[in-house]
Every structure is written in C-alpha cells, then in structure tokens.
Write a structure and sequence with these properties.
It contains nine helices and two strands, in the order H-H-H-H-H-E-E-H-H-H-H. By secondary structure, the protein is mainly alpha-helical. The chain has a domain of 179 residues. It has a two-stranded antiparallel ribbon with strand order 1-2. Strand 1 and strand 2 form a beta hairpin. The longest helix is centred in the N-terminal third of the chain and has 29 residues.
C-alpha cells in the first residue's frame, strides 16, 4: 500500500518535470526561428514562462545582480528611445530587448533547480536548432529551394532562418562547439556522427561570411581542446580504476592489472 501510494504521488511530479524539460527543448529549438517579429521563439518563451510560473518557479537571491543589471540596461534603452519614439522599428527593438531580458532572468530561475537535467534538455534543443538552421543556410546558398532560396540569403551570404548572416554565424558557435566536444570525447560511432554534424554547421558558418563568428569559433574550439586535454589527463579516481580492471575469460585478472575482488568471489 505504501509503495503504491508513493508511486501515485511521484507520477504527477515526473510528468510535470518532463513537461518543463520539453518546453526547455522547444525554447532552445525555437531560438533559431527569428526571421520575423515577434518570432516563434517569443511565443514559445511566453508559453514556457507561463507554465513554469503555474507549476512553481522561484526567483532566488543570487539572481538579484542579474535582474538589476538588466533593469538598468533596459532603462537606458528606453531613455534613448524617447528621442526617436516616432520610429516604429526602434520601439519594437526596445520592446523585444526588454522581453529578452525577462526571458534571461526566467532562464536563470528555471535552471536553478534540477540544473543538469534541464540544461541537457535546453542544449539538445539548441543543437537541433543549429542543425536545422545550418541545413537551411547551406541548401539555400546552393539554391536547392529554387526561387525560395533568396529568402534565406542576404547580399549573397547565407542567413538561414535569421534576419542577418552575422547573427546566423554567432548563433552557430555554441551548437558547433557542443558537436565538436562530442567528437573529441565520444566513442567512435558517436564521434563519426558528430563529425558529420560539425561539417554541416561549419559549412553554414563559413557561408555566413561572418569573420567575427569565424574568430569566435576558432578561439573557443582551441580553448575547448585545451580544457578537454587537460581534464582527460587528470588522475583516475580509485573507484574509476577499480571499474576499469579487466578480467579474462578464465577468471584471472588481465596482465598488468591490479587484482580487485568482485562481489561474490
């Protein structure tokens, strides 16, 4: 009876957390769909904020510095806007900036609990978004969409699902780095899949002709390689060494291995 009651209580919590994770994935994926204003990202973001608020969202004390900085920044935007308030594009830009500031705070609050699992959801969404944006950019650059290809190009540069090629290039840096990390640390099959994804993203990054994005990726990739190399050479823990000890088919320890008794022997 006790186990049944516990399972009944745990199930709704699991489904709510799964819904939150799915919304984070969708926010990550929608981050590449910003070719119109308001963009699908803003709509998905508003939905996610509402659901997180209804299911429980805490604004903790460590978020106060971030909130204050964003408030002052957007007050500056609003003050500057007063001189050109008659220009609709400027007003829209300031309002979108304020909305993005709100979503930044909400992101921080959402990731403040169950951080690793929620961050995994969000990063998988960003990775999917990077792949879709890259495929659209590369295919459009080679006019594989026919006359529609011009919608995803600007001045002969690939812009994909963004308004500007420079924004496409900057956006692709993070998913390309995540893919590069998988290629460095994954098993052979995973590394090969990651290498294919990385080639697609790097092709789109190159065709954006954004020199700043090229430089960002090159610098960050070298830094990632250095950190990966440094951490991979860290001494193994005793538990990890014990886990890696191999036994041959006859039950004897493999040559060169330290004997560690297995349970039951």
């Amino acid at each position: 009876m006790t186990h049944a009651a516990a399972a009944t209580i745990a199930t709704p919590r699991l489904s709510v957390e799964t819904l939150r994770g799915a919304l984070l994935w969708l926010m990550g994926f929608a981050s590449a769909l910003v070719f119109i204003e308001p963009s699908p990202y803003e709509i998905v973001g508003a939905l996610a904020i509402a659901i997180f608020a209804l299911t429980g969202l805490k604004l903790r004390a460590p978020l106060v510095p971030l909130i204050l900085l964003l408030v002052f920044l957007n007050l500056g935007y609003a003050t500057a806007m007063l001189q050109v308030v008659d220009q609709s594009k400027v007003v829209t830009w300031v309002l979108v900036s304020a909305y993005l500031a709100v979503t930044a705070v909400i992101y921080a609050a959402m990731l403040g609990a169950n951080t690793q699992a929620r961050l995994d959801w969000l990063m998988r969404g960003c990775l999917a978004a990077g792949l879709v944006a890259s495929l659209v950019a590369v295919m459009a650059y080679f006019h594989l969409f026919g006359e529609l290809s011009d919608l995803f190009l600007l001045y002969g540069r690939a812009r994909g699902t963004f308004n500007d090629p420079n924004v496409l290039g900057a956006f692709l840096v993070l998913p390309a780095l995540m893919t590069f990390q998988r290629m460095l640390t994954g098993r052979l099959s995973s590394a090969l899949n990651a290498a294919i994804l990385l080639l697609v993203m790097l092709a789109a990054l190159f065709l954006s002709f954004s020199r700043a994005a090229w430089g960002q990726f090159a610098f960050a990739a070298m830094l990632l390689m250095a950190i990966t190399f440094a951490t991979s050479r860290a001494p193994m823990s005793a538990a990890h060494r014990a886990h890696r000890h191999a036994w041959d088919a006859g039950g004897a320890p493999a040559r060169g291995c330290v004997v560690v008794d297995r349970p039951g022997r």
